[in-house]
Amino acid sequence: MALMFSSEMKKGSIEMIVLSLLESRARHGYEIGKLIEARSGGQLTFALATLYPTLLRLENRGWIKGRWVEKAGERQRCFYRLTAEGHRVLAAQRKNWRAYVAAVNQVMETGDA
């Protein structure tokens, strides 16, 4: 049975997810969306109407940089890469996320003590 995640949960994590997928190499928006879906086993999906404004927001903050590339026989695509600031932001977000998840787990697993 597939879990359904609320839009609020997804909204709170999309930036970190996108940044993490750009950590290893540049990717275009459609590829990012497909990778999120594949790596989550289909449990996380983001409509392109959500993904592209997120990419634009991250670029405006200076965390990613887009570059338009045209390959023979293919349409032009914008490939995004992480900037130095984006690497710093991602590291901080990961640290905060792990601490948050650990705190939530601690509260949920403590029970009535």
Structure, explained:
The structure is a single chain. This protein has 113 residues and is of the alpha+beta class. The protein contains five helices and three strands; from the N terminus they run ααβααββα. A hairpin with a 7-residue loop joins strand 2 and strand 3 (77-82). It is globular, with a radius of gyration of 16 Å.
The total of beta strands comes to: 3
Q: What's the pLDDT, averaged over the residues? A: 89
Please, how many helices? 5
Order of helices and strands: HHEHHEEH
Radius of gyration: 16 Å
Shape: globular
Sheet with most strands: strand arrangement: 1-3-2
Q: What structural class results from the helix and strand content? A: alpha+beta
The amount of helix comes to 55-70%
Q: What's the end-to-end separation, in Å?
A: 32 Å
Biggest sheet statistics: 3 strands, antiparallel
Ranges with pLDDT <50 over ≥5 residues?
none
In brief:
By secondary structure, the protein is of the alpha+beta class. It has 5 helices and 3 strands. The protein is globular and about 65 Å long.
